[in-house]
Amino acid sequence: MNCKSAIKTIVMVMCGVVWLSNTANAETVSKADLRKVEEQAKQQSIEHQKLQEQAEIIGQELNKVNKEMISAARAIQNSEEKLSKMEKQLELLQEDLDDTEAKFNREDANLIKTLSAVQNLAMRPTESLLVQPLSPVDIIRSAIVLREAVPYLEDNAQTIRKHFVEVSEKKKKIEKQLFEIEKQKNTMQKEHNRMKKLANAKAALKSRVEVKSEQTRKNIDKLVNQAKDIKDLLQKIENQRAKRKLEEKQSADLIKSPHDSINNIASGFAKAKGSLPLPVRGNIISQYGDQQNKGVSSKGLTVATRLGAQVISPFDGTVVFAGPFRSYGDMIIVEHDGGYLSLLAGLGSIDVEVGQMLLAGEPIGRMPESSKAELYVEIRKNNQPINPAAWFKI
To answer: Is the whole-model pTM more than 0.70?
Structure first.
């Protein structure tokens, strides 16, 4: 082997050693990186599991609070209904008392007049009758009348005593009714206080898993300004909802929503026809199809309520709108399954947010503190109003 060939061989051997050395280092680095990635993936999996467990716990807590709020709302509505009946009974008792007192006063006045006349006759001496310019027949007639007046006075006095007892008893009934009304008001106030505590607890839970984003609020505000009427508003909300669903499919959430169980519940709206509770207790003053101002027919029904009455969701669903809307005032739109929507307008305060899942009977707001509080209720199918009377258990 010449020198040139020897040098070539040495170079080749040295290059081979370097290549082998580099390969070994590369394998070492790759294995270290792999272990690091695997460790990170394992840690992420643990964190993911923890978050899911936390979400599940929060979901269970929220469901528990929701059920308690439904129970509290039902108790409040029962108290409102009972209070209204008691107040109506009080009005009837007061009218009856006024009528009895009027009779008592009339009979008392008549008795006083009769007694005065008898007293005047009694105070006159017998001899004075002889010099009166009366005929013997008139004198005899006066004596007969005076004699007949005595049993009449006794009967009249007995009637007055009876009415006096009745007045006293009815006043006692009214006092008892007022006491019961005050007692019922205190009971209802306790339920309201309980509701506030539950609402605060729910708000604290919701702060850990936020339901509504700032962008959603901005979108809704923008839609309200653009909408010409409710139909237009609902169509825009539907378009926005479809867009939001598409975005949700494109990016999977890390934490499963604690309200997913509600999605499984919120079905069967069509089957609930005729059994839905009215969202608020009160008297229906306007029906679907009734003529309103300017010849426009009503697309829903209107319920006159107590001031500050509790309003509930008639069925499971999702809040797609919550806020003021034109002449409708504060309004809530709840989306149910099968293309159904319930629209509630005229509230004094709203206790729900856009995107919030609702259970049937869950409190969603209160009526205004006004003697003219009225809740307007619509049911819509594919954005078209239908007669709600057939859906509610009235």
So the answer is: no
Q: Do 74 and 152 belong to one domain?
A: yes
Which domain CATH number covers 241?
A: 2.70.70.10
Dihedral sign for Cα 263, 269, 271, 275, please.
positive
Residue 141 lies in domain = 70-208
Three-state DSSP at 1 gives coil
110 and 180 together in one domain: yes
In tens, the pLDDT along 163-175 reads: 778 778 888 888 8
Structure tokens at 344: 């509630």
Confidence (pLDDT) at 179: 85
Residues 150, 283: Cα–Cα separation, whole Å: 55
Domains in the chain, number:
2
In a domain, 317, yes or no: yes
Looking at the fold, whether 354 and 288 belong to one and the same domain comes out as yes
How wide is the angle at C-alpha 238 spanned by C-alphas 355 and 339, nearest 5°? 90
**Could you give the CA distance from residue 159 to residue 97 in angstroms, rounded to a whole number?**
16
Would you say residue 43 lies in a domain? Answer: no
